Amino acid sequence: MLALVSPALLVILALIVLPVGWLAWQSIYHDGFTLENYRRIVTESIYWRSFALTFEISLLVTVLALLLGYPVAYLANAVPRGWSVLILALVVLPFWTSVLVRAYAWLALLQRTGVINQFLRYLDVIGEPLALVHNTFGTVVATVHILLPFMVLPLYATMQKIPGDLMHAGASLGAGPAHAFVRIFLPLSLPGVLAGCTMVFVLCLGFYITPELLGGGRTVMVSMLVSRNVELYNQFGAASAVAVVLLLSVLLIFFVVSRFISLDRVLGQK
Amino acid sequence: MKKVSGLKYGYLLLGASIAAMGFGNVAAQAAEQITFVSQGGAYQQAQMVAILDPSAKKLGITVNQDSIPDAWPAIKTQVGSGKPIWDVVDTPTGNCLRGGEQGLMEKLDFSKIPNGAAMPEAYRSPYSVSYEFYSSVLSYSQKTFPKDAPNSWADFWDVKKFPGRRALRNHPFATLEAALMADGVAPDKLYPLDVDRAFKKLEEIKPHITVWWTSGAQSAQLLNDGEVDMEMAWNGRVSAVAKEGAKVAFTYNQGILQSTSLCILKGAPNLDTAVKFLNEAVDPVHQANLPLHIDYGPGNPKAFETSVIKPERAAQLPSEPANAAKQALMSYAWWSSPQGEAAEKRWAAFMQK
Question: Is it true that the peptide bond before B192 is cis, omega within 30 degrees of 0?
Answer without folding.
Answer: yes
